[in-house]
Design a protein that fits this description.
Blueprint lengths: L7 H4 L9 H9 L3 H5 L11 H21 L4
Length: 73
């Protein structure tokens, strides 16, 4: 979706990391607690970026269209 912002070669080498409910609370708190919640510096599945980037783009386009159609001036 944003190839100029994503290092796809590096993403292919990064392991998947999921947040537990406890880690999610830490992550949402922000600050230093975030480091404990995501020790790899990220959460998610970077290797899966190419397969979900098109889905994300389509979802965003649908949402934008729905918002634009429902703006009443």
């Amino acid at each position: 979706m944003y190839p100029d912002l994503v290092d796809l070669d590096k993403a292919k080498r990064l392991d998947s990391y999921s947040l537990s409910p406890e880690n999610l609370d830490q992550w949402l708190a922000g600050g230093d607690s975030t480091v404990n919640a995501v020790p790899l510096g990220y959460a998610g599945n970077p290797k899966g970026y190419p397969s979900v980037s098109n889905i994300a783009k389509e979802l965003i386009e649908v949402q934008v269209k729905a918002i634009c159609e429902n703006i009443h001036m």
